[in-house]
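Batch manifest, entry 17 of 40.
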Amino acid sequence: MAVLSIRQKLEILADAAKYDASCASSGTKKRDSMSGRKGGIGSTEGMGICHAYAPDGRCISLLKILLTNSCIFDCHYCINRRSSDVRRARFTVREVVDLTLSFYRRNYIEGLFLSSGIIRSSDYTMEQLVGVARALREEHDFRGYIHLKTIPDADPELTHQAGLYADRLSINVELPTEQGLRRLAPEKNGERIEGAMKGLRTAIEDTVDAKKRYRHAPRFAPAGQSTQMIVGADEADDRAIIRRARSLYDRHALRRVYYSAFSPIPSASSVLPLKRPPLLREHRLYQSDWMMRFYGFSVQDLEQATDPQTGHLPLDIDPKLAWALAHRGMFPVDVNCAPRELLLRVPGLGVKAVDRILASRRVRRLRLDDVARLTSSIVKLRPFLIASDWRPVHLIDKVDLRRQLTPPAAQLELFG
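Output type: structure tokens
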């Protein structure tokens, strides 16, 4: 490997990290440089140059890099695979630590997202990742956010050490199905990946329990664990992806499942698709994920929103509207007396809007213009709601209702 400057390494390894979508900084314990006896460097609060958003809207900037883009594995879909003809680079532990501190002091970042290709062995690579986090926390008292990608095949003790220093840990399941994993990443094992995720859940729950009993019990990955699935590299349809996501949430108590649309890569393997799936497909999967987590939709509900022939969610309308159009008999609902669970199923009503409606109707009966002031748009809502001055009559039964509610096609980019 040629001798590269830090700037050249950063250019290569920051670009190589762009394929990892699971880069959010939500849910961690709040820390700042004023807390503690000696103070420290960094914070998990405040705003900066944005790379990720917290649930409360705060913008958190993260240095997102790979330790190295060299890898002993040869996964077909990965640009950093062993047989890929890409320029390679590798940071030392000290270089990553110095970069993180330097970027923080310049107010460029609030934390670090660190992943890596596998070099030498899984244990050796994991030792390097843990070494970065340990040096930041113990040598420099860094209090910013740290997210480490862990390696399923690594010694569990190394993963445990990672959890003592990092705010969030993540293990990528890579592909939605075991068949896809065997075909496109034969060196990876689905059972080992799930076993490692199960171990993380146990460690997180044990720490939460210990914290209730012992005030000074060490924290372990307080922001939980997440994972990522590649969409469109194999034949899995949206129904399979949704089922897989739900099972991961249930079995491993994940904070997030991230979806990354497959992107054709240089020197691509012949077993991969020739073109990427529509980015809108990734967006629809995120919407379906939100519906499961916050709107009370089950896997079966979301499957009813997919196309019976293709198994995919529609691209022209969102999954919530697709479900509502398939269940017209449940609508319209009365905004002044419908329960929260039913209001959450109305297309165009979000969680905040529903909460505002529930609060407002305690003091007055709501008219349609009242609902309009509580939401971003009333157009999609009109066929599905009854208000004190509004009843859609036969609007919900119109044959061309879907066409009327389908947003106009976006103009194509001139150089897209």
